[in-house]
Amino acid sequence: MKDVIIYTDGSCLNNPGPGGWAAILKYGKHERVLSGHSSATTNNRMEMQAALEALIALKEPCRVRLHTDSQYLRMGFAAGWILGWRSRNWRTSSGQPVKNQDLWQALWEQAQVHKIQWIKVKAHANNRLNNRVDGLAVKARNRGMRSGR
After folding, report:
1. Is residue 149 within a helix (H) or strand (E), and if so which, with residue range?
2. Distance (Å) of CA 139 to CA 6, 58, 75, 99, 143
3. How far apart are CA 112 and CA 63, in angstroms?
4. Residue 44 burial class via C-beta count within 10 angstroms: exposed 0-12, middle 13-18, buried 19 and up
5. Each residue's pLDDT tens digit in the chain (149 positions)?
6. What phi and psi, each to the nearest 5 degrees, are found at residue 10?
7. Which own/partner pairs from 108-114 qualify as long-range (CB within 8 Å, at least 24 positions apart)?
8. Distance (Å, whole) CA 39 – CA 101
9. What beta strand segments (E) does the chain contain?
10. Which long-range contacts (CB under 8 A, 24 or more apart) does 128-132 make?
11. Which residues are known catalytic residues?
């Protein structure tokens, strides 16, 4: 399996509101940048979309170190929240429907393909790649706002 490093981030204005996501994928000397936007979304959805798009972009099963500043995204897997949600038919422990179920399900499918280590990064700290992906997510959000989509 190839070892891939991924940095992801999401951005949302007013939450909910217009949002953007971005991912940087690194394999050896190769780098790929992905980004996109949505006109009406939340920050959590953009964080999740970034991770999902990065994982989908991998052409074969990989060992992935996925860096995120989203506690929500990381803990969904690292703390096993997603296992409980799945066992309760996508319900929380209080019986409420899981928010962002569509993205959680898609991420779960990708987690069955790749061996993923979910790594917490402090937001807006001195981490070059995290700061870069944050800027890319903001640019994607702004690009979406200008295009009206």
Report:
1. none
2. 19, 23, 26, 26, 6
3. 12
4. buried
5. 999 999 999 999 998 999 999 999 999 999 999 999 999 999 999 999 999 999 999 999 999 999 999 999 999 999 999 999 999 999 999 999 999 999 999 999 999 999 999 999 988 778 999 999 999 999 999 998 887 65
6. -130, 155
7. 108/82, 110/52, 110/55, 110/56, 111/55, 111/77, 113/55, 113/58, 113/61, 114/55, 114/58, 114/61, 114/62, 114/63, 114/64
8. 19
9. 2-12, 17-27, 30-41, 62-68, 115-120
10. 129/7, 129/24, 129/67, 130/7, 130/9, 130/67, 130/69, 132/7, 132/24
11. 9-10, 47, 69, 124, 134
With contact defined as beta carbons under 8 Å apart, do 50 and 106 qualify?
no
What is the separation of C-alpha 98 from the centre of its chain, rounded to a whole number of angstroms?
A: 17
Dist CA 85 CA 28 (whole Å): 36
Tokens linked to 22: 């971005």
d(CA 15, CA 27): 33
* Chain centre distance of CA 61: 18
User: What is the C-alpha to C-alpha distance for residues 130 and 112, in angstroms, rounded to an integer?
Assistant: 25
